[in-house]
Amino acid sequence: MTLRNGLLLGTAFLVGVVAGPEIGRVARHQATFGSALAQDVQQNTAGTSATSASGHAETYRLLTLFGDVFERVRADYVQPVTDRDLINNALNGMLTGLDPHSSYMTAKQFADMQVQTSGHFGGLGLEVTSDAGLIKVMTPMDGTPAYRAGMKTGDYIISINGKSLDGIDLNDAVDRMRGAPDTKITLTIKRPGKDKPYDVTMTREIIHIQVIRSALYGKVAYIRMASFDEDTESGMRDAFEKMKKQAGGKLDGVILDLRNDPGGLLDQAVAVCDDFITSGEVVSTRARHPEDSQRMNAHGTDITDGLPLVVLTNEGSASASEIVAGALQDHHRSITLGTRSFGKGSVQTVIPLSGDNGAIRLTTARYYTPSGRSIQGLGITPDIKVRESREDDSKFMLREGDLAHIIKNEGGTQTPAAPRTDLPAIAKSIPDEPPANWPTFDPTKPGTDFQLQQGLKVVNAMSAGQAAPAASTQHAGSP
To answer: Which CATH class is domain 212-355+362-463?
Structure first.
């Protein structure tokens, strides 16, 4: 794959690659920050304003401070440390201190990152992030060792093969979890709500991401998206056409399952929306520099010809999946059912560094739904709220707003969305949690999936004659 170094929508570090996949445009330059900064400092000439001169002097003072600390650590640290390790640590600290999604990647980590959008890589299939210095699970990917081992969003990984992760950098923790296929690894997990940590032993393998899974329930097409890689839209379309044929050429509705989908490629998110929305805005981005802002519109054909559509979301639905859920919701093309999504409303740009020195991923813009909403730190609120279990574990759910030093939610519309008046009558009778005798969820048994079963009720009710959402362009204006 040729990397289109551009905007990132991934939410966390993935065990098997170092970062989420890239989306969007090509970066126009390679970063040569050392020389650029030196030139900037040297521009403090006689003709420079007093304010600018003061700023340059402060920059020079801080660079001198950095050099002093660098020399002291190199000379007096308890054991020898390479200059490269010191600089790598400093670069990563510079970026991770800005927000949870900016980071520095070494050449190896950058190469690892490029693998994910091809849909297969080595590892555990486990997305993790840093939470107050602890390693926290964002989501296990479908069908992977982590998924089969029963790991869940919100789990903390406190040790690997008996060695504590206390104080370990996220990059280092991810590196420790990687390894050759067919080798075993034991993670010690602390799950919120459980008194004692416990061990989970897995076997590393080459992860082949099954991005699209589908099933036909009666005449309702169920399409599950695990992530947005290069083949997501085409895979979704193929699955839809296959199920339509199986249903004798006529379907009653579609369920699009975006639960625990951490995101991916922007062009794929837009393409998926194209398959349900015929015109109007899908998403817009606003950057520091106006020329880098973008607006992406739908120019497609509704492949379902207006069939009832339900989108399932939960706290693991992030980035590209939130773009899809938000666009379909704003256009009143779908009904969203489940729990509030992750809330990552920022985009990152991958900038390769010269001299095979890796790359940086830098937060460069915020994105907005067609109605002008910024979901940063807030997420997509479902039209019909349904929890997956009776346990009130919301306080344990990790979302963007729970991470340290996130960027602010700003620039979007501050007008609350008007309550929807087009929901089918059955929406009022959908319970917000399973009954007491509901069976324990088993991913191999759809009948135990409470959110899915409620989604099927809604789709079938709309198909039977209750009001069904129709695509609207009322929110097509640029925010």
So the answer is: alpha beta
